[in-house]
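Entry for the shared binder. Reason: the reviewer on the internal report wants the predicted structure included alongside the sequence.
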Amino acid sequence: MKKIYFIGAMLATAISFGQGSISALNTPYNENFDGMGATGTAFPTNWNAIRGGGTGTANQVLTMQASNGSANTGTIYNAGNTGSNDRSLGSISSNSTFPAFGMSFVNNTGGIVTEFNITALVKQWRTGSAETVNESMAFSYSLDATGLDNGTWSPATSLNINEILTSTTSSVQVDGDLPANQSNLNGTVNISTTPWNNGATLWIKWLDDNALGNDSLLAIDNFAFRATSSTLSISQNNIAGLKVYPNPAKNTLYVTSDSFGAKQVELFDVLGKSVLNTKVVNNTVNISSLSKGVYVAKITEEGKTATRKVVIE
């Protein structure tokens, strides 16, 4: 089944390295896609798309087409009513092309982000022909990818894009600007077990695989991305010669520096809760009471502080 999913947001590929900057918690990155224009074929800044599956050339960058829902070729679309500048972006999936689209964000908040939220308005511009198939475009994110075609991706089903008109038996054009053909997308993803460090990059994407029959056309408009929770940032150079080892650690953590001054160590879990606050004795800290996981260690010495990420096994 060929799926058309129109998303008012387009996704950055491995070929396109533009990135959105997240500089503060709850300050959104917004994209309404109207800048594409009624007939435009250029992606909004930072967004792009590749062939994520199908019989065609793997990971090939896809060319956008403008459509009001009448087209059904497998690719990425600038979707909206003819002549209207109210646009959205999405994809049709076919046997040869399973579109994958997304973008990346840089964490410039100064903290370690442990949660993010995405909202958008989903619009359906074409119906699917298989009443028994409720189409869904799978959302995922990655903290180690350098593009849409590599890295380790984790699913987040609360942000899947789902078909709205599910009882249709023929594939025809519909008006995605009508409220009856719209739904709200709103999902929050907790990433506290593998947090998003300050200065690091987070990638997001939707993958539109091929379903039975002729697929529907869905779109996202009014896209917004927010970092919604964070912990301490990790600083590196405030204490001369500071060393915190081994890492990963088990029962004992060693903390040394050039000055050999008295040191205090406080450990925080990924939710920002202080779980240990103790003096360093003979360059050692007993961590045997802590559970396995990722922590931030705050070290204080002679009025100076530094932080390090510590993994306990």
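Summary line for the report: Residues 1-16 have pLDDT under 50 and may be disordered.
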